[in-house]
Amino acid sequence: MGNNNFKPFIPATEKRSEFTVVAMIIGAILAIVFGAANAYLGLIVGMTVSASIPAAVISMAILRVIMKRTSILENNIVQTITSTGESLAAGVIFTLPALFIWQLRPSLTTIAIIALAGGILGVVLMIPLRRALIVKEHGVLPYPEGTACAEVLVAGEEGGKGARLIFSGLGIGALFKFIVDAIKAFPSSIEWEIYKFKNAALGMDTLPALLGVGFIIGPRIAGIMFAGAVLGWLGIIPLISYIGDFAPTAIYPGTVPISEMNYHEIWGNYLRYIGAGAVAFGGIMGLVKTLPTIFSSFTEALKGFQGTDRSEPIRTDKDIPMSWIIGLTVAFIGILVFYPSIKVGFVGALLLLVFGFFFATVSSRIVGIVGSSSNPVSGMTIAALIFITLVLSVIGQTGEAGMVTAIIIGSVVCIAAAIAGDTSQDLKTGYIVGATPKWQQIGQLYGVLITSIVIGFILILLDNAYGFGSSELPAPQAVLMSMIVDGIMNGDLPWNLIFIGMAAAAVVELFGIGSLPFAVGLYLPIHLTSPIMVGGIIRGIITRQNKPSGEAVLKEKTERGILLASGYIAGEALMGVLVALAVTAGVVLPTDTIFGPIATIIAFIAVASYLYYTASRNVTK
Fold first, then answer.
1. Number of neighbouring beta carbons within 10 Å of residue 570
2. CB–CB of 436/316 below 8 Å?
3. Phi-psi label, residue 25: left if phi above 0, alpha if psi -120 to 50, beta otherwise
4. CA-to-CA distance for 211 and 533, rounded, in angstroms?
5. Closest by alpha carbon to 272, among 282, 260, 263, 283?
6. Which pLDDT value is given to residue 164?
7. pLDDT for 245-286, tens place per residue?
């Protein structure tokens, strides 16, 4: 069991300012910023990044350096609110864009209610598990992101330096996006057809955010993703093109003969379905491989719902009252059942409660073992969505109404699982630094509320400007969810292509490699995975050069690169949302670029070189 002699950084007997108006304002702003960043990033590449450490660094710079406020607990509340916002955004963009893909545009109120319901359920279902998972299992469950964030908060004197890196990255990312999207100074994407190899092509979206993602995830995962893209764009697309030359008529799901298609059209009509099959297999395999952990997590976590000592708890052991938990759960289930544009029905509510409770409970513990980045939320959602859609079709809820109900229930489950995992990491950070759980939990509910209000605006703006499922915003998870529901309800999926993708992912699993990154690479255009590969290579070079210098030097240089990369992502995403706002408001942007692809290559090399320089240089204390 855990370490009973643990002493938090701030003792339980010491009181410091914690849940303050300043923390609420800064946390709300950062929750919106990083929520927008994760929404944008997830819709492009199908993955999101943690905002806890960047938020902690920025809040320390504002609170300690600018405002001269020194409470570590106040800093912790800011990062808690922020990370809740980015996790809610991740759950939303994995599912709700499916409604836009079907041309069913939900209102801002509908999106906000769905997001609120999933977020609040994720928070309140985790709270009874806190003592079992965070306190009793301390030293057993590592909670890697939560522990790392606590280390950053404790080492608060480094906050100003780290914040400068994030803000400089934010400026570079925003400026780059403005230049390529608003001014159209040069194209954001470059590509080359391969000579004497019909419909084979290499390409790159030269965006700082993708470079940043590659640096954060590292060379191994970036390489596995790029391997999927290489197979798709230099293997499967040319193969389909070669065979299509001998087929004079269209082959479903295409509507024109393959011989008349270019590589982008073959990707849209065929490779996308193969990639979707691979993503489904990878997500479910991630779930299957963690089944022993899931079942043990569920049984262990259930013990947290059992009665505990009723005596007055000390400050560091206070949770929000159980009456809040029950009241909020009942209220939002009721809204989902009866609200006119949602109305999941009583069967839907039952499915939502069962899957929401199970996966929120599992997610709360599993992130303590494998970390939030390896939490198989998409696999959980796919599995839940298949079962939910089958049940709804059996009881006669079919057609458009049944499809919408399935996606809404799946969205709430997905958001609840993502938020429960994030709540666990935040409460672990708080446990280490000596925070008051009650104030953290209120902060998490506040973060859910703030992000739920704005996430609908962000979705509608991005869809209006770029279109979900397009080459600009592929929305891989949401497209997959829409395919699953549509295919089960209407039976019109090209299953052969889906199964080919599953077979490709199975081969990767048999090599002993996790297939989900490969599957995402197979699904996405190679233009998106190639800059991620470049970022991964830069991280690999930094690691190789600095390993001989020792773990501390390598950790410091890697963290500097990650902070700059986080800034790249946030800056580009914010500018992407602002450009989308301008387009929606009727601003006519230029369509022709001023300079050619040579300028694009020079700009990308400059951004990549700055990332390498920042991470590799020696910093004097």
1. 31
2. yes
3. alpha
4. 8
5. 263
6. 84
7. 998 899 988 989 999 999 999 998 899 889 888 888 887 887
List Cβ neighbours of 204 (8 Å cut-off, separation of 6 or more).
Answer: 189, 190, 191, 527, 530, 531, 534, 604
d(CA 579, CA 173): 13
- Return d(Cα 257, Cα 271) in angstroms, integer: 15
Between the alpha carbon of residue 83 and those of residues 1, 109, 194, 601, the distances in Å are: 28, 23, 43, 34
Residue for token digits 């489904």? Answer: 280
Please state, in angstroms and rounded to a whole number, the distance separating the CA atoms of residues 495 and 91.
Answer: 27
Please name the amino acid found at residue 603.
A
Would you state the structure tokens that stand for residue 392, as one six-digit string? 């709804």
Given a cut of 50, the residues of the chain with pLDDT beneath it are: 1, 157-159, 621
Amino acid at residue number 283: G
Rounded CA-CA distance 366/462 in Å is 32
The CB density around residue 453, as the number of other CB atoms within 10 Å, is 16
Give the whole-angstrom CA distance, residue 611 versus residue 375.
28
Task: List Cα–Cα distances, 445 to 28, 164, 435, in angstroms.
Answer: 12, 29, 16
pLDDT of residue 312: 60
The helix (H) or strand (E) run that includes residue 96 is: none
Per DSSP, the residues of 529-563 read: HHHHHHHHHHHHHHHHHHGGG-HHHHHHHHHHHHH
- Other beta carbons within 10 Å of 166: 24
If we measure between CA atoms, which residue out of 150, 54, 87 comes closest to residue 420?
Answer: 87
Q: Cα–chain-centroid distance for residue 233? A: 25
Paired with 204 in beta bridges are 190
- Rounded Cα–Cα distance for residues 233 and 202 (Å): 7
The CA-atom distances, in angstroms, between 589 and each of 207, 465, 592 are: 19, 11, 9
The Cα–Cα gap between 208 and 513 comes to 28
At 4 the pLDDT is 57
The Cα diameter of the chain in Å comes to 80
Q: Is 295 exposed, middle or buried (0-12, 13-18, 19+ CB in 10 A)?
A: exposed
DSSP 346-406: HHHHHHHHHHHHHHHHHHHHHHHHH-GGG--HHHHHHHHHHHHHHHHHHTT--HHHHHHHH
Q: What is the 3-state secondary structure (H, E, C) of 337-358?
A: HHCCCCCCHHHHHHHHHHHHHH
> What DSSP letter does each residue of 412-433 carry, written as one string?
HHHHHHHHHHHHHHHHHHHHHH
3-state secondary structure of 120: helix
Alpha-carbon separation of residue 420 from 91, 155, 214, 358, 366 (angstroms):
11, 27, 26, 11, 10
Nearest to 441 by CA among 287, 325, 553, 335: 325
| Residue 474 tokens, joined | 């592929």
Q: What is the DSSP letter of 258?
A: G
Q: How far is CA 604 from CA 206, 479, 527, 610, in A?
A: 6, 29, 13, 10
Q: Which amino acid is at 513?
A: I
Query: pTM to 2 decimals?
Result: 0.83
SS (H, E, C) 130-165: HHHHHHCCCCCCCCHHHHHHHHHHHCHHHHHHHHHH
